[in-house]
C-alpha cells in the first residue's frame, strides 16, 4: 500500500469463534461463526458483505467454498494463499477494492478445527520435491534451522528464546480468551520435550481450533458504526522464498522490507508504535521480527526479549493477547494479530488493555519465514 | 519429442547413475539449485550441467526428534556447496546432534525414501 491509500479504509468489526476446542464443528462452521461475530460487532449482516477475503488450510478454492457456505454472492473475492500472512495481506487488497468501489463491505475471515480434527497441522500444500526426501518436519524443522543459525551468528541463547514463550504466557494469563493461561517459567520451556533442536515443544505455537473475522469499509462511512473505527494507515508485503532451503539469509526475513514500506505508507516509525502484534509461530519469530521491523538492531533480538522486557510491565508490549504461543493458533494465526491490534486501539482488548493506544502494528508471517506482511493501524487521532 | 528431458529429469537421472550434476547458467556463470528451466539470478534460459565438486559446508542444521520405536532421531540440514548453491540434506556417519554449522562435508549419492538422493558425510582431514 502506498501513502495515497493511508487511512482510506477502516476496521469496523472484529470477531472470533471456536477458540481452543470447537467440538463437533468443521473448519467452515468455525469460519462462519467468526463471520457472524464480526458482522454483529459492526452492526451489519451477511447480506451486506460484497467483498470476501478468505483462505483455508483444507482446500484450493476456499473463498468460493466460504462464499457458498455463507450464502453470499460477493462481487469481489481474494483468496491469495501466502500462509498465515494471508489475512494481513488482505488488508491491502481490501483497502484497494474498497477505495476503487469494487466492494463496499469487505469481510476477511478464517476458521479451523485442526485441534479436534487431527491434533496437528492440516494442510493441502505439498512438501517441496527437493526437500521432502529428507523428511523435515514442517514447519518446525525450518524454524529450528533459522533459530540455530541465529544462535550461531549472534550468540542468541535458548534461554532468550524461552523468554519469548514466558512473556507470551504472562500476557495470556490475563486474557480469558487465551487457551493456555497457566504459569510458565524459563525452566519449563527449556525442560520441555525437544522436538527440533534447538526448539522444545514450548518454543512452538499451540495447536488449537479457532477462527477470526474482520469487517472493513471505506473511511468516509467508518464513523457510522457502533464501534470506534480503526484505520489501515499502511500495509505492505514482501515474499522471499517458499522452501526454507532457498532462504538467502536465515537470520534476515523479508519483514525488513515489508516493515519499511508499511511504516513509510503510514508516515510513522517503530518508535511511535504502542502495541506490537507479531506472528509468533515459534519463539525465534518474535526475535527475528523485532529486529527486522526495527524495534532493535539485527542480532540484538535475544537480549531485547530477555527477562520480561516484552512481558506485561516490560519496556515494549509485544503480543498482548498471548500470541500464537499461548492464546490461539488454529493452523494460521495472522488474522489474530490484526484483531488484537484493532482491539487495543478500540480499547476493548480481552486481556490486558494498554492505555490510550493510537498506533498498533500487526505482522503476519507465512510459509517458512517466506511471506512477510506488516500493517500499521491507527485510531481516529492518527488521521 | 518423447526423449526430451526437463531439468528435474536430468538431475534425477544423473543421481540414478551415481552422479551429482548441478545446473549452471551459460549467461551469468552462476549455479543454481533446485533445477529449473531458467537462471533465478539473471533469468537467462541457457542452462548447462556440471559435475558437482561435492564439497560444502553445513549452513544450518537441526535434529528431528523421533521416538526410538519409529526409527529414532535424525539430522536435517542445509548445506552450502562450494558452487554457491544450497540444498536440504542430511549428514550421515555421525550422530545427528554432532552435525554442526560450518562443518566441512562431502556429498555422496545415497538413498532417501527409497530413491537416490544427495547425502553428505563429514569431510576427511
Give the arrangement of secondary structure elements.
The complex is a heterodimer of chains A (383) and B (125).
Chain A: E1 9-20, H1 27-42, E2 51-54, H2 62-70, E3 76-78, H3 86-99, E4 106-112, H4 114-117, H5 140-154, H6 158-173, H7 186-191, E5 194-196, E6 199-200, E7 209-218, E8 230-239, H8 255-266, E9 275-278, H9 283-292, H10 301-305, H11 323-326, H12 334-346, E10 359-366, E11 371-378
Parallel strand pairs in A: 2-3, 2-4, 9-10
Antiparallel strand pairs in A: 1-7, 1-8, 4-7, 5-6, 8-11, 10-11
Chain B: H1 7-16, E1 21-25, E2 47-51, E3 55-64, E4 74-81, E5 86-89, E6 104-112, E7 115-122
Antiparallel strand pairs in B: 1-2, 3-4, 3-6, 4-5, 6-7
Describe the structure.
Chain B: This is DNA-binding protein. Chain B: Residues 14-46 form the ChsH2 rubredoxin-like zinc ribbon domain. Chain B: GO terms for molecular function: DNA binding. Chain A is α/β, with parallel strands linked by helices and 383 residues long. Helix content of chain A is 32%, strand content 19%. Chain A folds into 2 domains: 3-119 and 209-232, 3-Layer(aba) Sandwich (Peroxisomal Thiolase, Chain A, domain 1), CATH 3.40.47.10; 137-199 and 234-378, Peroxisomal Thiolase, Chain A, domain 1, CATH 3.40.47. Chain A has helices at 27-42, 62-70, 86-99, 114-117, 140-154, 158-173, 186-191, 255-266, 283-292, 301-305, 323-326, 334-346; strands at residues 9-20, 51-54, 76-78, 106-112, 194-196, 199-200, 209-218, 230-239, 275-278, 359-366, 371-378. In chain A, strands 3-2-4-7-1-8-11-10-9 form a 9-stranded mixed sheet, sandwiched between helices. In chain A, strands 5-6 form a two-stranded antiparallel ribbon. The model of chain A has no long low-confidence stretch (mean pLDDT 97). With 125 residues, chain B is mainly beta. Chain B folds into 2 domains: 1-51, no CATH class; 53-125, OB fold (Dihydrolipoamide Acetyltransferase, E2P) (Beta Barrel). Chain B contains 1 helix and 7 strands; from the N terminus they run αβββββββ. Chain B has one helix spanning 7-16; strands at 21-25, 47-51, 55-64, 74-81, 86-89, 104-112, 115-122. In chain B, strands 5-4-3-6-7 form a 5-stranded antiparallel sheet. In chain B, strands 1-2 form a two-stranded antiparallel ribbon. Chain B is globular and about 45 Å long.
Amino acid at each position: 500500500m502506498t501513502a495515497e491509500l493511508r487511512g482510506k479504509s477502516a476496521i469496523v468489526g472484529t470477531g472470533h469463534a471456536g477458540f481452543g476446542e470447537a467440538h463437533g464443528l468443521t473448519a467452515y462452521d468455525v469460519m462462519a461463526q467468526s463471520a457472524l461475530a464480526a458482522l454483529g460487532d459492526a452492526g451489519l449482516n451477511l447480506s451486506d458483505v460484497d467483498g470476501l477475503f478468505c483462505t483455508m488450510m483444507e482446500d484450493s478454492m476456499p473463498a468460493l467454498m466460504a462464499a457458498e457456505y455463507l450464502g453470499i454472492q460477493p462481487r469481489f473475492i481474494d483468496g491469495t494463499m501466502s500462509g498465515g500472512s494471508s489475512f494481513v495481506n488482505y488488508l491491502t487488497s481490501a483497502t484497494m477494492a474498497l477505495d476503487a468501489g469494487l466492494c463496499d463491505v469487505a469481510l476477511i475471515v478464517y476458521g479451523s478445527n485442526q485441534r479436534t480434527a487431527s491434533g496437528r497441522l492440516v494442510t493441502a500444500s505439498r512438501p517441496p520435491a527437493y526437500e521432502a526426501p529428507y523428511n523435515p518436519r514442517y514447519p518446525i524443522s525450518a524454524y529450528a534451522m533459522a533459530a540455530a543459525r541465529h544462535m550461531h551468528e549472534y550468540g542468541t541463547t535458548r534461554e532468550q528464546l524461552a523468554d519469548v514463550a514466558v512473556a507470551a504466557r504472562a500476557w495470556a494469563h490475563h486474557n480469558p480468551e487465551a487457551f493456555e493461561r497457566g504459569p510458565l517459567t524459563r525452566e519449563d520451556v527449556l525442560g520441555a520435550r525437544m522436538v527440533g533442536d534447538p526448539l522444545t515443544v514450548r518454543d512452538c505455537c499451540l495447536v488449537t481450533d479457532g477462527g477470526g473475522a474482520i469487517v472493513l469499509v471505506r473511511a468516509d462511512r467508518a464513523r457510522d458504526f457502533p464501534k470506534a473505527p480503526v484505520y489501515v494507515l499502511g500495509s505492505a508485503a514482501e515474499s522471499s522464498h517458499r522452501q526454507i532451503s532457498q532462504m538467502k539469509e536465515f537470520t534476515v526475513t523479508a519483514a525488513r522490507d515489508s516493515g519499511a514500506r508499511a511504516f513509510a505508507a503510514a508516515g510513522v516509525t517503530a518508535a511511535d508504535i504502542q502495541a506490537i502484534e507479531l506472528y509468533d509461530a515459534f519463539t525465534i519469530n518474535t526475535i527475528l521480527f523485532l529486529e527486522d521491523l526495527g524495534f532493535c538492531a539485527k542480532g540484538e533480538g535475544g537480549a531485547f526479549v530477555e527477562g520480561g522486557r516484552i512481558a506485561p510491565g516490560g519496556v515494549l508490549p509485544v503480543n498482548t493477547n498471548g500470541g500464537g504461543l499461548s492464546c490461539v493458533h488454529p493452523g494460521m494465526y495472522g488474522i489474530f494479530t490484526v484483531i488484537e491490534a484493532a482491539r487495543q486501539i478500540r480499547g476493548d482488548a480481552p486481556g490486558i488493555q494498554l492505555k490510550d493506544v493510537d498506533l498498533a502494528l500487526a505482522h503476519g508471517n507465512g510459509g517458512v519465514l517466506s511471506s512477510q506482511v506488516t500493517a500499521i493501524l491507527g485510531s481516529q487521532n492518527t488521521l | 519429442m518423447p526423449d526430451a528431458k526437463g531439468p528435474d529429469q536430468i538431475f534425477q537421472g544423473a543421481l540414478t547413475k551415481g552422479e551429482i550434476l548441478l545446473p549452471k547458467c551459460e549467461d551469468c556463470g552462476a549455479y543454481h539449485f533446485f533445477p529449473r528451466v531458467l537462471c533465478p539470478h539473471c533469468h537467462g534460459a541457457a542452462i548447462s550441467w556440471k559435475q558437482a565438486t561435492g564439497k560444502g559446508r553445513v549452513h544450518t542444521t537441526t535434529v528431528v526428534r523421533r521416538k526410538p520405536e519409529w526409527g529414532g532421531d535424525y539430522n536435517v540440514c542445509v548445506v552450502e556447496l562450494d558452487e554457491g548453491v544450497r540444498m536440504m540434506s542430511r549428514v550421515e556417519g555421525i550422530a545427528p546432534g554432532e552435525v554442526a554449522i560450518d562443518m566441512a562435508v562431502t556429498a555422496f549419492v545415497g538413498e532417501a525414501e527409497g530413491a537416490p538422493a544427495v547425502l553428505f558425510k563429514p569431510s576427511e582431514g
